[in-house]
Amino acid sequence: MNFIYEHLLLVILFFPTLAALVMLFLPAGENKLLRWFAFGASLVPFILSVWLWTQFDPNVAGYQFEAQYPWYEALHSSLHLGVDGLSLTMVMLTTLLTPIALLASFSINDRVKAYMMLFLFLETGMLGVFMAVDLLIFFVFWEVGLVPMYFLINQWGSPKGEREVRSIFGKFTMSARNYASLKFMIYTMGGSLGLLLAVQMLGVLFGNYDLQYITANWSGYTKDLMGISVSTVKTVAFWAFVIAFAVKVPLWPFHTWLPDAHTEAPTAGSMILAGVLLKLGAYGFLRLVLPLYPAEAKYFAGALAFLATAAIVFGAFASFGQTDFKRLVAYSSVNHMGFVVLGIAAAASAVGTQDATIALNGAVLQMFNHGLSAAGMFFLVGVIYERTHTRNLDDFGGLFPLVPVYGGILIFTRMASLGLPGLNGFISEFLVVRGSLPLLPVYTAVSMLGLLMTGAYILKGIKQVLHGPLNEHWAHGEHKLTEINTREILVMAPLMILILVIGLWPAWILDVINKAMMMLF
Amino acid sequence: MTTETLIWLIPLPPALAFFLIVLFTNKNKALSHTVGVGAAVLSWLASMVVFFRALSVEHLGEHPFVSSVNWLPTGDTWFRIGVAIDPLGAAVLFFVSITIFMIFLYSVGYHNFGQPAGDHDRKGLPPHGATVTDEHGHQHVVPSVEPMYSRFFAFLGLFAFGMYTLVVSDNLLTLFVGWEIMGLCSYLLIGFWYGKPSARAAAIKAFMTTRIGDVFMLLGIGLLYSLTGTLNFREIFGNEELMHTLATPGTTLFGLSLAGLIALLLFIGTVGKSAQWPLHVWLPDAMEGPTPVSAMIHAATMVSAGVYAVIRMFPLLSLDHNTMTVVAFIGTFTAIFAATIAVAQNDIKRVLAYSTISQLGFMIAALGIGAYVAAAFHLVTHAFFKALLFLGSGSVIHGMEHGVLHTGNHSVDPQDMFNMGGLRKKMPITFWTFLIGGFALSGFPLLTAGFWSKDEILADAWANGHLAVFITLATAAFLTAFYTMRQITLTFLGEPRTKEAEHAQETPWTMTVPLMVLSVFAIGYGWVGIPEDFPLLGGLLPSWFHEFVGGTLAEHPEVIPFNPVPLTVSLVVALGGLLLGWLYYRNVNSAKEDFFQIPLLKNKYHFDEAYQVVFIGPVIWLSEVFTKWADQGVIDGILHFFGPATGGIGAFIRNKIDLPIINEFIGDGLAAVTQETGRTLRPIQTGRIQQYMMLSLVILAVVGALLYFMLGAGL
Predict the structure, then answer these.
(1) Which of A80, A329, B162, B217 has the fewest CB atoms in 10 Å of its CB?
(2) pTM of the model
(3) Which chain A residue has its CA at the smallest distance from B647's CA?
(4) Is the dihedral of CA A111, A113, A116, A118 positive or negative?
(5) Cβ separation of B218 and A448 shorter than 8 Å?
(6) Predicted complex ipTM
(7) Strand blocks (E) in B452-540
């Protein structure tokens, strides 16, 4: 027990990988065993994170549970792990959503072993990013997470669908999931090329990759580099960081990979993609961009806010324009994550003020909240897709009397996503608006248009699926729509409980975030 | 239990009822309504205790009941939320708790509890009636119970929770929470019969229209919070220095002061919630909800929340003269605008819907001219008599539906007033109570509550020299009396115009008792606000309302001295409107004979169509055409450049460099050279040891010689 406590982060980080390796030796055909094993294994990091949460002292500045293991001595890069209030919240989100996503995957029957293993690898990849206190390790885990997700989309994504690729060189078609996975992979990797270069530059300059050391020295660094003025270098490096994270968040106009990837991914893949992977980008902004480039972030805050507002507004409009249920939900992520970046941009413009702290509180809480509601929404889309094999909103209609429980859960989750007061989304959006309004009044006011359209697309989803005259196709015979089952309710239950609890009593989590933000910035 | 604890507890029972019904009792109708009504009773009892304790406190305005807790950490400080009951809060709590209790009770009868399940009833559609066979073997069609009976009580519970939260809040944020929860309930209840496309559309329209107001309100809340560091009413209004800074004129857009800008933003929220022009369009369509219970929620109680919010923010609102003018204009215009539309409506509920918009306009106008107490007074009296009228109209429709089921002719619209007539004999309780409600709405002199509150608004407008407001409101009051009498005459007086009206039937006690209770207040509540110097009647009863609610403000509002002009005007318009309405409509028997069926009015001045073209069309274009073009055309187009371009570069490298140069020249070339060399050298590979030995010796000699000379040279 003592060993686990001392190496708690290491255990949480690599337990999923270990479990995946053990799965290698389990019999391939035993789907039930494989599912329960993977699910059980993913509960361990969750329980340990809860323990971590209880042991964590929010009043202490800096990283806690720090541990350093040798990794690449020659480069002075080590496996340096640690958590503060910001990363702790994200670790919690990851270890919570993974078992939920695995439980949601029990309906997968195709190559269960490989599927479950990929998911466990994915969890390690995501956790590594949140725990890393070493730039190189950060980058390694950043890229590691891509691989399992690529295969999950490419192999287990929706089998139907073709995508026509048009460009000035002519057009050709490829399978939709192939297109989506490729776009996701290449776009994210392409976006992080600059990040890699910038990280290497810092590593060369300081002789190590330790995040704390670099943060302390880089922002005050004034000597010219390689004959180029330091301000130019910093500006270029700043944008290299920003673009890598902007693709991931995603900010407008780097967002077009998202609707494709989310739509084609298997249900649980979309849950994790929206629930956690997008947070990696926002986390990058908070962990690296603001601390490393405070001056540049302040100077370019308006530009960031512009992109965030564009994401909020265009994301909402685009969502409203969709006829595919899953695409509609996917675009809503663009809209919601825009608020995260708006809060970050506002904070960047006035670090240290109370307004900035409130905006940051809102942004981090919004990351957590969006993780809950987006995961829930993708799951609910998956539930109905599994039964009807269609995602076209026009094929549904009036399903409420057939599936009252599902309908109730759907409305609840949609309302959380809409930001209904009393549920979690409202708290975070209110804090972002409150924090950003005095700092970036015009952008905040324009983003209200997005908030209005949020209502429109959310109601559109409910209207097309649940309300209106019943589509008789689903009422009788072999197509008869069946109610959400117990396992599926169990997937939703923890999400719904958290949505309600945070909406009514946010202080337990917001206090941790607030203190972390106060100490970080 | 301390009063503060009790105030915290008021909103809880309905919220618990919601969860209980949704999670556990939804299969059992009797249990569900017991839980629902029980929760309403508990909240009502608690509210009454709080109200009477509030009455016994001297200077409650200065020492209200308050209690708060930390809620959101904001840097070094906390955002606190809590409850507060001051005189205004107590007065509102009084009418809210009674009307909510009555709605719950009424719903039991309205949704036909105790009746058999319908023959073809489906969830999501109104019940169509059930066939029963009596002891003589005759078959009758009787009303059938609502298939989603339990769900209705769950929604009502959530609604009540929202309303109570709004009233007991001590700050704008939790007020907004209650506000939005009611918005959700209104969406759910308007769309209760979601199987009907019209109900589905109306629900979305209501939610979206009010949301337009809500996002502005959210901005206002954010702005107020960032400027003052708090959203607590007392902390803001009690801070004179702060109020003074906020009131500095001309510091923001359009020359408004900060206070004016914030108040304007908050007021836009009210324009949405209280269905004021130009965001009034949702309320008439909201009548798609179950008649009349949701109608009553939308028209008598929830919309009051909007007015309540502006009354609450009055100290801030009154800091900027320009904002006050806007408020006064919107209110006055809405009052007359909606009244003209009401004259041309034939649906019994729609008349009341427009009348509600118009009456809310009266209250808003009163606030705009600074008549704080009059606005609050009209808010309370209106809630009572409009609730009464809506429940009465529901009772009428219920009775008419009975007639429709009896005759089996479903082409007869049970809500169209021209299909009614003579109902006073069939439904006496409904008739008398409706008459009381209608007279109160018209401002029938001396007896009814509506007279006293409306008269106070007119007197205020006159005394403060707002002549335009006075004339417009007086005209609107005349129209109000006129269309109310039109409604009463067409519905209850004369002879039945259809067979269905002949077979209409009085409704059960659960529906008539609320009517009787509310009619008591529709008359009696006016007497608590009779001005002291009113001829003859003044001073008989203390003018309690003015004293009590006026005490909410730091500066006690002055009592308007009595003036015969506004009194005469309100007597003339009320009685004149009623008389003319009766004289004209007692002879009208069909819509064709009705002079006021003016197309422009019937079509509500074409606002729906105009909004469709000006707002909704462009939004749909932006969503469906523009974003698709931007994302899949432009952005993906650029991205797709990279794929084939990379492929092109790859192909170039392969075809122009790899294949010819590396493969053919270097790769194949080297191989060819090697091969050729090998082939040339093959003859020396004879396989004979002697030759190899010989060769080795020769090479050894040559290398040895070379080494000798080179090393020797080096040495």
Answers:
(1) A80
(2) 0.89
(3) A169
(4) negative
(5) yes
(6) 0.89
(7) none
